[in-house]
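Take a sample.
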Amino acid sequence: MKKRTILCLIAGFWLLGSLATAQKLMQPAKQGNEAAQVNTTVLSNQMMITIMARMKNHDLPEAKKIAFEMIDGHEQYIDTPTMEYRCFSSLMGKILYEVMGEQSGSKRTINWLEQPVADGFYFLAMIAYQEGNKAKALDYLQKSIQWDPVRSAFFAERGYMLLNQEGSKDLGMVAASYLKAADLADNIEDFAAAIRGMGFTYVEKGDMETGLACYILSLKFDPSSKAAKYEVEFIRRRNPLLVKNMDVNGAAAVLAERRIPTRINPVHVTVLWRLADQLVKNKQPRELKAVYRRILLIDPTNKEAKARLGSF
């Protein structure tokens, strides 16, 4: 019997996709210290591409040097009772954080830094992990989350790292990380990855039913996932009747009972409508159409999005 393995859910190259989307849909907000501003396109794109190339070629010292340049000077930005500094990968992230702040009653002003501090710490985490220092990797990743608390991929990566720490594993913390990743996911890829992570965690706990439900639901969103299919087959070999008797609807019912999300959080539709309002003001029709399409991916029955998209 082959030993089960869990593949790293997030590869460094996901950053390019999120960054490209961000640069199409947003213009970063100005930060308080004008002298500290950097060119997002030049710094983020070039440094991230370079650092990923170094990591691919196993030149970790050079990759680490670039990552430290990405976080250089971050210590000068200190949160206060009325102000906080964050580094979101897109305008959607900033709006989501604002919505979450409104829901919690926060009154603090959010300064969105153009410097990619969160991504710098993320790369330091990946480098430390490759070097075998898993504890330091987790510490760096936690700093990424501090700077960008709404990046689903960071929480999915934390779940993976917690699963692979030395010694006993706190599966409750692992599940909490993947649950947060699912809650923050604003696209089907991130949502499916988070639910797969939940599935692996529950199987590790010995709860085959919940684990199977996670994998079946994840395949609804990402039917091509080899990892999910492998895990379903792993469970089938141990409990063929369980797999035979569970379909997508049954999986959704199991997860709903355990308060595990079965669809992308509707809060992201609220975020997209706010983004759409800004794009209307800025007269950006092509980007606006992309936003309406994204709303329909999350909420296919949204009549207003359909009507607006049909008006182009």
Remarks:
- The chain has 16 helices and two strands.
- The radius of gyration is 20 Å.
- The first strand starts at residue 83 and ends at 86.
- The chain has a mean pLDDT of 86.
